[in-house]
Amino acid sequence: MEGFNLKNTFFSCITIIVLILSMLFFYEPAQNLLCSFAIFERFLVNTPKVCSLFDTTRLSRYKGVDGGKIYLSILGNVFDVTEGRRFYGPGGSYSGFSGCDASRSFITGLFDEENLTDHVSDMDQNDLIGLDTWINTYRKKYKEIGKLIGRYYDSSGKETDYSKLVFEKIKLSKIAKVAKNEEMARYPSCNIEYVQEKQKSKVWCTKLSGGIKRNWIGVPRKLQSLDGNGKLSIRCACVQLDNLSKVERMHINEYEDCDINATTCYVKIS
User: In angstroms, rounded to a whole number, what is the distance separating the alpha carbons of residues 145 and 72?
Assistant: First the structure.
């Protein structure tokens, strides 16, 4: 009798599991088996109203056709942008973003095969910072409803190595931008104008040169620094000679035929 009860209990549990999976499968029109299991896996903890894991096929169904919902993904994060139907719905100016992850297009503004992709690891610092700005804008304006299985998140919703790489690059890009802004504040760019009759460029400093408002003028100097790609670059900068350390002087050179204290010089810039 005890064995019979255990057998009944076992089959009852199997029946309940099948019923739950079936209910989850039909929970929403576009639900699929993968999401059913994803929800069931967290069923005892928290059952979301909409499955938080999307594959590309499921996401592609949400383009706002016939008044339906509109979802898009950026860097693997899925957002419900239905409220912006006139922009993201059929015929809208941003409809190319709907139903897919076109992270690259957010920066390039192009919707061809090459740009309708979520591959962005080869983009430069400014582009990556731009993507970070976009995703933060969406988080403020729209509801984030899940993750896209693929390049950024695996089938269990965990971050992939590619995702970690991209977000680490974004973090480093933001740090580099802060450092660059600090550099520009300390060494504002010179005003530059090519003078035809002298066959040289006029470089000069003012209290507003380089777009940096300050209470000092400075003198033109060649400043060596690393660009966003880690390559050595040289630009004309206005510097305060009295405030330079020995280390700083190693990266700053005088222009030929320019008086050491002159605020305006005529130089050849290659």
Answer: 10
**Do strands 77-80 and 71-74 pair parallel, antiparallel, or not at all (unpaired)?**
antiparallel
Nearest to 69 by CA among 86, 53, 89: 89
**Joined tokens for residue 84:** 């912006």
Distance CA 146, CA 51 (A): 7
- Maximum CA extent, the chain: 109
Copy the structure tokens of residue 198. Answer: 């002298």
Which residues, 6 or more positions from 266, have their beta carbon under 8 angstroms from its beta carbon?
Answer: 195, 198, 200, 201, 202, 203, 257, 258
pLDDT of residue 6: 63
* Cα dist from 148 to 69, 80, 102, whole Å: 16, 13, 12
pTM for this one? 0.73
74/152 Cα distance (integer angstroms): 10
Q: Is the pLDDT of residue 106 over 60?
A: yes
pLDDT single digits (tens) 168-191:
999 999 999 999 899 999 999 999
Neighbours of 213 (CB within 10 A): 9
Helix (H, G, I), strand (E, B) or coil at 198: helix
State the Cα–Cα distance between residues 136 and 47, nearest whole angstrom.
Answer: 26
The phi, psi pair for 203, rounded to 5°, reads -120, 130
Task: Read off the pLDDT of residues 111-170 as tens digits, 9 standing for 90 and up.
Answer: 998 999 999 999 999 999 999 999 999 999 999 999 999 999 998 889 999 999 999 999
CA distance 74 to 80: 12
Token pair, residue 149, equals: 């299985």
Q: How far is CA 96 from CA 67, 72, 113, 137, 217, in A?
A: 17, 9, 11, 18, 49
Mean pLDDT of the 196-214 span: 94
